[in-house]
TrEMBL record:
Protein name according to UniProt: Ribosomal RNA small subunit methyltransferase A
Primary location recorded for the protein, binned into one broad class: cytoplasm
PROSITE patterns reported in the protein's UniProt record: RRNA_A_DIMETH (PS01131), SAM_RNA_A_N6_MT (PS51689)
Enzyme Commission code(s) on record: 2.1.1.182
One GO term describing the cellular component: cytosol
Free-text function comment from the UniProt entry: Specifically dimethylates two adjacent adenosines (A1518 and A1519) in the loop of a conserved hairpin near the 3'-end of 16S rRNA in the 30S particle. May play a critical role in biogenesis of 30S subunits.
GO terms, molecular function: 16S rRNA (adenine(1518)-N(6)/adenine(1519)-N(6))-dimethyltransferase activity; RNA binding
Keywords: Cytoplasm, Methyltransferase, RNA-binding, rRNA processing, S-adenosyl-L-methionine, Transferase
Pfam families per UniProt: RrnaAD
Assigned protein family: Belongs to the class I-like SAM-binding methyltransferase superfamily. rRNA adenine N(6)-methyltransferase family. RsmA subfamily.
Locations listed in the record: Cytoplasm
Naturally occurring in which organism (per UniProt): Tissierella creatinophila DSM 6911
Length: 287
């Protein structure tokens, strides 16, 4: 295959011939490193048995490599001006379908049912930085037949996602991601391999979805986590008791001691399992 879409020269000629202008508001940065493109697809574990849902194909750089390795690829693109370019760049591949829409608005469950035999599917994406968390949250929280997410995000966001208790960057995002998945950073990606080049480096992170989630009321659990990290410098007791819940400080102190947790601990010292314990012991929380 002579011209691959990750070739900077070829990609530039395509963009210029269509008069395409990069959108800052959509966070568009296209990969131009073939080794990284291939490594993402390889580390995502894509095989000829897999259906892949790609978010934001851009001009098809990653989509092309996915199509060469997967059974089928459905790529959701929000930018209407990229659709005619994708029609040309991905024309040789019969196992790709482009869907125009916003991944935050479309019915993902129906998409998987109708176009990917109901799944399971693997999600692969080079996510726009400004909308990373809402997209990840949607895939994690909704009842979707998704096996894994392999996604490009800001390097510091990836580090927060994989961090565990005791780390300086451990926070509510860490607990949230680890509640639903087993995350691992696959590789770091320098800003120099994008067109145009972003201001910061990126990382590819893989979230392997958990089949069995912790046995706890999710609403109660995430209320506890959010309140605990709302005031990082405070002790866990003071953070919970000052958040505005319908309980007295002594109620929280008793619950923490019952869970075997020092009330003077801080949120970043507590494991996911300890947050589960607290959530189970406390009565239903309200504000």
């Amino acid at each position: 295959m002579e011209n691959r879409l990750y070739s900077a020269k070829y990609l530039k000629s395509i963009i210029e011939s269509h008069g395409f202008k990069f959108s800052k508001s959509l966070g568009q940065n296209f990969l131009i490193d073939g080794n990284i493109v291939k490594k993402i697809v390889r580390d995502a574990g894509i095989t000829k048995d897999d259906y892949v849902l790609e978010v934001g194909p851009g001009v098809g750089t990653l989509t092309e490599e996915l199509a060469l390795n997967a059974k089928g690829v459905v790529a959701v693109e929000i930018d209407k001006s990229l659709l005619p370019i994708l029609d040309i760049t991905l024309k040789p591949y019969k196992n790709i379908e482009i869907v125009h829409g916003d991944i935050l608005d479309i019915d993902i469950k129906s998409l998987i049912e109708e176009k990917m035999e109901g799944g399971p599917v693997k999600v692969v994406a080079n996510l726009p930085y400004y909308v990373t968390t809402p997209i990840i949250a949607r895939f994690l929280e909704e009842d979707l037949n998704v096996e894994s997410l392999t996604i490009m995000v800001q390097k510091e966001v990836a580090q927060r996602m994989v961090s565990l208790e005791g780390s300086k960057v451990y926070g509510s995002l860490s607990v949230f991601v680890n509640f639903y998945s087993n995350p691992e950073i696959l590789l770091t990606v320098p800003k120099s391999v994008f067109m145009p080049s972003p201001k910061i480096d990126s990382a590819v992170i893989k979230l392997n979805m958990k089949k069995d989630l912790p046995e706890v009321d999710k609403e109660q659990f995430f209320k506890v986590v959010k309140a605990s990290f709302s005031k990082r410098r405070k002790t866990i007791l003071n953070a919970l008791s000052s958040y505005g819940f319908n309980l007295e400080k002594d109620d929280f102190k008793i619950a923490l001691e019952t869970a075997g947790i020092d009330p003077k601990s801080r949120a970043e010292e507590l494991s996911l399992e300890e947050f589960v314990k607290i959530s189970k012991i406390l009565p239903p929380l309200d504000i």
